[in-house]
Amino acid sequence: MKLKIAVLAGDGIGPEISVQGVDVLTAVGEKFGHEVSYKAALCGAAAIDAVGDPFPEETFRTCEEADAVLFSAVGDPKYDNNPSAKVRPEQGLLAMRKKLGLFANIRPVQTFDCLIHKSPLKDELVRGADFICIRELTGGMYFGEKHEGDDMAYDTNKYTRGEVERILKVGYEYALRRNKHLTVVDKANVLASSRLWRKVAQEMAPQYPDVTTDFMYVDNASMRMIQEPRFFDVMVTENTFGDILTDEGSCISGSMGLLPSASTGTGTPVFEPIHGSWPQATGLNIANPLAQILSVAMLLEYFDLKEEGALVREAVDASLEANVRTPEIQVAGGAKYGTREVGQWIVDYIRNK
Ligand code: IPM
Ligand code: MN
After folding, report:
1. Mind telling me the catalytic residues?
2. Is the CB of 90 under 6 A from ligand 1?
3. Residue nearest to atom 7 of ligand 1 (CA)
4. Is 243 in the pocket of ligand 1 (CB under 6 A)?
5. Do domains 1-102+265-353 and 104-253 have the same CATH topology?
6. E strands within 150-237?
7. Dihedrals φ, ψ of 203, to 5°?
8. What are residue 5's DSSP bridge partners?
9. Backbone angles phi, psi at 317, to 5 degrees
């Protein structure tokens, strides 16, 4: 297969983990005889600094022309505490999602047995938890009409039937391939937009008789995720709720540095770690590259390259088992490995397999 990859490394630790993702993808390509080519493009604070725009037109074109985008992270502290900044790195991410029509954000929450002790939850609660959160990504408050005055401001949480239907369809398709349990998370006791979600889901449910559909208010869902994370199989929810719940989901697994995600829709799909740009760690060779590397696994699986994706996952598991780990998940007294060393170990594993 020929794969053209747009590489958007972004800010902070982004460039360091990006290299590891690219090296792993290259190793897989060589092993299985795929022709993978790369084109780098600017985004986030790096793009603001270079051309004044966090998602420049040229980057958009590079993404459009690619088969997939391997994205890393954006964000820079110099924008965080400045509410009057006119452009922000995060706008680049939002523009990318909107312009590429990436309405479905797939965020798996998985545990790794050897890291259970790192979870803030008790072993017996979290062991075996394995669910997917499907977050609507191009609607709701993030993109609804806004007003920002000195004395009054608002964001509008608008959803159309079409937007709700297409994301629920993604949810049902995932549920069919997994344990056939879909939980629609909303706030239908208060929000009109949520009632539309619930109504559309109730209408669609009979088309998926093999799937058990249930509904949960978001406040309750956030509680259930820590009390009984194994309850969930596939969860589907609107943009803002999904943003919040997936951060919660990522920390129950033990390390945020381990979770990948995929954003899909009408345009080029994007694969990226869930974590952010961790500016304090920039250049220190301590960031965990596994979420980026697992994003490569998701990319391969998206193109139905199952064996290839499975090999990447196997290599990641092997690295964890062998205690080849970045400091935040290393066992006491374990050897020191940095971002590059973990990435290289995984590349070697793939090559020698
Ligand atoms: C995420 C991030 C983004 C979001 C930010 C950086 C705009 O938190 O991908 O979850 O809120 O969607
Ligand atoms: Mn978020």
Report:
1. 142, 187, 219, 243, 247
2. yes
3. 90
4. yes
5. yes
6. 153-155, 181-186, 212-217, 234-237
7. -70, -35
8. 38, 68
9. -60, -45
Which residue from 94, 238, 247 has its CB within 8 A of the most atoms of ligand 1, so it is best to mutate? 94
Answer for the pair 291, 274: CB distance below 8 angstroms, yes or no. Answer: yes
Ligand 2 center to 109 CA (angstroms)? 14
**DSSP secondary-structure letter at 285?**
S
At the top level of CATH, the class of 104-253 is: alpha beta
Cα angle for residues 169, 101, 104 (degrees, 5° grid): 35
The owner of tokens 């609507």 is 136
- For residues 266, 270, 275, 280, the Cα torsion angle rounded to the nearest 10 degrees is -130
Pairing mode, strands 130-136 and 234-237: parallel
Distance 205 CA to ligand 1 centre (A): 30
Closest ligand to residue 79's CA: 1
User: Which CATH architecture best describes the domain 1-102+265-353?
Assistant: 3-Layer(aba) Sandwich (3.40)
- Can you give the pLDDT of all 353 residues of the chain as single tens digits? 999 999 999 999 999 999 999 999 999 999 999 999 999 999 999 999 999 999 999 999 999 999 999 999 999 998 877 777 889 999 999 999 999 999 999 999 999 888 888 899 999 999 999 999 999 999 999 999 999 999 999 999 999 999 999 999 999 999 999 999 999 999 999 999 999 999 999 999 999 999 999 999 999 999 999 999 999 999 999 999 999 999 899 889 887 788 999 999 999 999 999 889 999 999 999 999 999 999 999 999 999 999 999 999 999 999 999 999 999 898 889 999 999 999 999 999 999 99
- Beta-carbon contacts of 266 under 8 Å, excluding residues fewer than 6 positions away, are 100, 101, 103
Cα dist. 55→13, 111, 296 in Å?
18, 33, 22
pTM score above 0.70 = yes
Domain ranges of the chain: 1-102+265-353, 104-253
Atom of ligand 1 nearest to the CA of 94: 7
Cα(315) to centroid of ligand 1, in Å? 28
Q: What letter does residue 151 receive in the DSSP assignment?
A: S
Cα–ligand 2 centroid distance for 130 (angstroms): 19
